[in-house]
Amino acid sequence: MSTSPQLFGLDLAEFWSDFRATWQRAHHWPLLAWLTPDVPVRVLRADGTEAVWDGVRLVGMDHAPSTQFVAIEIPADSLLHRSLSLPTMADAQVAQAVALEISTVSPFPAADLVWGLVVHVRPEGGLLVDAVLASRKQVQGFLEQQQERLKDGVPEVWAFSGAGTPIAFAGWGEVRRARHAALRRRIGYGLVLGALLLVGAMAVTPIAQLRLRAIEAAVGYSELQSRAMPVVAQREAFMQAIERMGLLREVLSEQADGIRLLEVLTQVLPDDTSLQSMEVKGLKVRITGLTANAAVLMQQLGLQSGFKDVRAPVAAVRNPGASLDSFNIEFQLDPAVWSVAGASVVQAVASSGAVTPVIPAALVPAASVSGTAPTAPAAASSPTPAADSASAPRKSRFSSGSETPRPAPISTPSKAQP
User: What are the structural domain ranges in the chain?
Assistant: First the structure.
């Protein structure tokens, strides 16, 4: 049993054979025929003359190129000619068909038969084969007679067809010339392939350079990202801290500094005023108590720095037989002065010592109300050299200038509640 590989009804073995045979004849195609060089051959003609076959025609020795191959022509009276018309087929199939035809018409025994052929491609399609056959004994005898012309080496044995094309008999020196032509053809293929590769490399080089630059840029960007990642993380943490500080500042800006407020009210309220309650909601303050003159008290509060919208939601009343007015006063605090955030800024500026701290008017006791002049703070004396050296400007990592020196905070006098 035998099996033949089939693919969609196609014999793969036959397909491969036909494919290989087609490419074996590729050097005969007009596009590639010029890569097979025409090897010049010195031809010893049957009439005793010499010529050179340059691949197209016979030329005289005077204008012939140098040759390294020699062929001798067999006389026409020793040859038999046969012409065949065949369809287009591979070289091996053409040789088999011609061999079968010659074995049928040859008058010579098979052991004494020599023959050669040349194939012409018809324009209308198909092949025209010119074949010649002769007796091996007659050819050997003719070569022995031409030893003086042949000198050294084994010549090729030629005959010419009716169109003037040489036909080489197999079995002599034609193999050496065929190998030389095949070697030259391979060199030509190699040169063409090298030129195509060079042109392709020239075309691809700019694209490859751009690709390599893009890869290098991507790698560099990745490395830069990896190096900058800690700094970016620190910056993100810093921005989040700033955002949280802003939110905290917004919250603190709505909260009054109760201790400072109580201290200032202690200083502002006259001696004949007693404070019964103080309610602080955000920056809104409500105070109630007893005073000798509620109108004068409202005026005094309205003159204080940071107090605004001073009003009395309920009119002051004086009970029969009483000497003091019962007051109920509301006022709004300025967030820039009285909020916790504003107070922290004031304290930071006061502690920096860059400038003389400015004490709000609310912190200065009114002489008209208290009747006494405030005493000068003890810290108002001139700074010592040690303090000057302590407040010397120092360099900052994040700025090109110097930080503001910080003096000691100035304490303000307080007044006890009556």
Answer: 36-172, 190-253, 258-371
